[in-house]
Design a protein that fits this description.
alpha+beta, three-stranded antiparallel sheet, two-stranded antiparallel sheet, 23% helix, 27% strand
């Protein structure tokens, strides 16, 4: 089974303005689409006894053994083979943040805990505007205070 073999960790870039959950869901959707598009096993065959005209004719009917596909294996009856994958995120990025975060799939979800416990170094680049304060401390928040910053000098 292809989904059982699908396990590990991988890095995904998340642009600013997109929630990390939407990125995870997009990765899951794409993987499911490709797994379901892969060729599956051929339908099982069953032996059925079907009526057929007798060789002597005269309207007589006899039963003949025939191999027919099992209709329960038909894709329209069965539906998609893969419906859900366990994909976990190693850490979460805020909607306004952009960067790389780690996703785990299958056994990789257990590895995410070990990766998190390693306390890897993270690098942040922060931008700001001197002299203005907003209600949520972001560049898009409502301005609550404005002041001068003449005491600061450029180096």
């Amino acid at each position: 089974m292809a989904a059982a073999e699908l396990a590990g960790l991988f890095a995904v870039y998340k642009p600013a303005g997109v929630a990390w959950g939407r990125v995870r869901d997009a990765v899951e959707t794409r993987l499911l689409r490709e797994l379901n598009a892969a060729p599956g096993r051929s339908p099982r065959q069953r032996v059925r006894f079907l009526p057929a005209p007798a060789p002597g004719g005269g309207g007589a009917v006899e039963l003949v053994a025939a191999r027919v596909p099992v209709l329960a294996d038909h894709p329209l009856v069965r539906g998609p083979r893969f419906r859900k994958l366990k994909i976990g995120a190693g850490h979460r990025l805020d909607v306004k943040a952009s960067g790389v975060f780690v996703l785990g799939i299958g056994h990789g979800n257990k590895l995410l805990t070990e990766l998190y416990n390693c306390h890897l170094t993270k690098v942040y680049t922060v931008g700001g505007l001197f002299g203005k304060a907003t209600d949520d401390f972001s560049d898009t928040g409502n301005l609550v205070e404005k002041t001068t910053f003449g005491i600061l000098t450029l180096i």
